[in-house]
Design brief:
By secondary structure, this protein is an all-alpha fold. The chain contains 13 helices and 3 strands; from the N terminus they run H-E-H-H-E-H-H-H-H-E-H-H-H-H-H-H. It has a 3-stranded mixed β-sheet with strand order 2-1-3. Helix 3 runs parallel beside helix 6 and helix 4 runs antiparallel to helix 7. It is globular, with a radius of gyration of 21 Å. It starts with 8 loop residues before the first helix and ends with a helix. The N terminus is likely disordered.
Length: 310
């Protein structure tokens, strides 16, 4: 007879097994090489960016502080997902403890919205810089950045915390093989003997509400920016204004495009290999992280000078 108490959860299922491309073993070998490269690139590039901003006094400005926050979030997401995936590929270490699985779920579900919210803060920074340049020094201050960081942490932590909590409170009574490379909420909750409808509905509402509202506000910011740029009559002013937003816009494209492709592929999962959504989910945690600091470094002269000094 199965015990009823919640305290028996860890006794019944003390660990999960991650079925990471077990149906396509060749994928593991071929993916491990580019994934390792992207992971090292992400960690090295973001670490270099953080050190440069910290040491270069001329970069101690709100825009670069927000970029530092984005780099920190990228590094945490990479460290949460990629080392475990590579351990599965290289050493077949598919097991993950009950607590570690839900910790990974919490970090993934909270840090991705934190990135989205950081992009929103960066979009507002560019909006004020282009549309209200005379008021920029008084609006975008160190105090503004501190408040933005606190808001990013509190909003996304409290909104996303119920996802792993609801999933961890489910009753797992035998099945422990996760058909994924990571402890995604839906992949884990489907193993439960309980109904996980509330868990699924909450994640769906949260994702569309948080990420959707951020994306809408970012788009609105760029609409106002584009309108202001088109009104600039000074020679070269429009190009200079757009160039200051170019790096940020490219970063948003990296983040949103991969996420959109993953969502569409997941919706059409009956028409594609089940490994494709899993692959996109893994890549979404490493490709933007690897490319973000490179794009900003290449397109921003002041960062280029900072890299050259160190």
């Amino acid at each position: 007879m199965l015990p009823d108490s919640n305290s028996s959860l860890s006794a019944e299922v003390s660990e999960f097994l991650l079925n990471c491309f077990v149906r396509s073993p060749r994928w593991q070998l071929w993916l491990s090489l580019p994934l390792s490269f992207l992971f090292l690139l992400a960690m090295g590039a973001n670490a270099t960016l953080l050190i440069t901003i910290w040491l270069e006094v001329s970069l101690h400005e709100p825009m670069y502080y927000l970029l530092s926050v984005l780099s920190l979030l990228d590094m945490v997401l990479c460290l949460t997902v990629i080392p475990k995936v590579l351990a599965i590929f290289w050493f077949d270490l598919r097991s993950i403890s009950f607590s570690a699985c839900f910790l990974q779920m919490f970090i993934m579900n909270s840090f991705l919205p934190m990135e989205s919210c950081t992009f929103l803060a960066m979009a507002y920074d560019r909006y004020v810089a282009i549309c209200k340049p005379l008021h920029y020094p008084s609006i975008i201050t160190d105090r503004f950045v501190a408040k933005a960081i606190v808001f990013i942490l509190i909003r996304n932590t409290f909104i996303t915390a119920p996802i792993p909590i609801l999933s961890a409170r489910l009753h797992y009574c035998g099945k422990n093989i996760i058909e994924n490379c990571i402890c995604a909420n839906l992949s884990v909750s489907k193993l439960s003997c309980d109904k996980a409808a509330l868990n699924k509905i909450y994640q769906l509402i949260m994702a569309w509400t948080v990420l959707g509202s951020d994306l809408i506000l970012i788009i609105l910011s760029y609409i106002f920016i584009l309108r202001a740029v088109l009104r600039l009559k000074a020679k070269g002013a429009a190009g200079k204004a757009l160039s200051t937003c170019g790096s940020h816009f490219i970063l948003i494209l990296f983040f949103s495009t991969i996420l959109l492709v993953f969502v569409l592929t997941h919706m059409a999962k009956k028409k594609v290999s089940p490994d494709i959504p899993v692959l996109l989910n893994v890549l979404h945690h490493v490709i933007p992280a690897a490319l973000n600091p490179i794009v900003y470094g290449v397109r921003t002269r002041r960062l280029n000078r900072g890299f050259g000094n160190y």
